[in-house]
Specification:
Helices cover 26% and strands 25% of the residues. It has seven helices and 18 strands. It starts with a strand and ends in a 7-residue tail after the last helix.
Length: 391
Amino acid sequence: MTHEIIMPKLGETMEEGYLISWKKNVGDKVQKGEVLFEVMSDKTNFEVEASESGYLRQILFQPSDQPIPVTTVIAYLTDTPEEPVEEKKEAVSARPEIPAPEPPTARNTEPAAPPAERIRISPRARKLALEKGVEISAITGSGPEGRIEEKDVLNYLQARQAATASYQVHPWSPIRKIAAERLSLSKKTIPHYYLQGSIVMDQIARLKEELKKAQKDYTYTDFLIFYCSRVIREFPLLNAALVDQEIRLYPSVNIGLAVALEDGLVVPVLKAVDTMSLEQIASQVKSLTARARNNQLKKEETEEARFVISNLGMYQVENFQPIINPPGVAIMGVGAITPRVMVSEQGSATAISLVMKISLSLDHRVIDGAYAGRFFFRLKTVLQQPGLLAV
């Protein structure tokens, strides 16, 4: 036997409802009293229970913003899962037309007043308009017959906010203006390309902890500067500068360190850093960073940066592509060091390792991809086996 499931009349004034969700799928067994679907009226949501037991065989309406008149058949149940559905109807998505009521007849030769025009609006849209204090007569509906949908209220609110929005002008500091000009020129004139990769930092982390026990507290940035300076000596183009159409190579390695300030960015430079010990590097980094943040750097301390390191790992940024700082030809973006599950080369074992992602931005006029690739591979090897280079 076939049982009709209808849009229920949940109140004396309810003429239509909105199907919110089905709690069962076609073919599912349904027990009498079990919640079958959810309906929204003009006031609230209701869970509707099945009035018969059986199998949900056909759904005629899917959840949507389209109203369904009360007593409309929206689905069928059958007693068994195999029997045919009697009086099967096509599924529809649009609301059937409801004849408009006839206007009242004139009395005592007085013409009847025209009925007030009803504003068609979905319950969700009405609720949102009420919450936001919006007069619904001011909203243009985009639904069938001009019906106001929730998106129409949202669009109205956005337009109203845009019309009344105000803003403040943030001062463009000299340091930010200079950086903007230099980096804009860099991006326009330097053919950037990028290499990205991951480096296991377990050995550096162990070395860091061992030195800390000896009252030598170094940061990961200190280690990166130390090992980068040594590897760059093997790849001098990473330490080059492009000036007046000349590729200039230098006997010592200069590494700039990007330091964020409240009103911009500055790059103090560690010069001849490849001759410094790890302890000297750590001391220089602390001194330069502190003076940079107090606006106490000397002019010469911000000049002649070639290879630059920009570290956003402390903000849990995993990967980014920094802009080259001319006349240098390379910059390395350092991401967060995070635990990752690693599989052995044989695929027979797994372990948790600390992994750091880096991104190299390179000037293709000076450094080719293969050369940069060899630099990355060497740096990765050294950082993963720091014993290859003595601290």
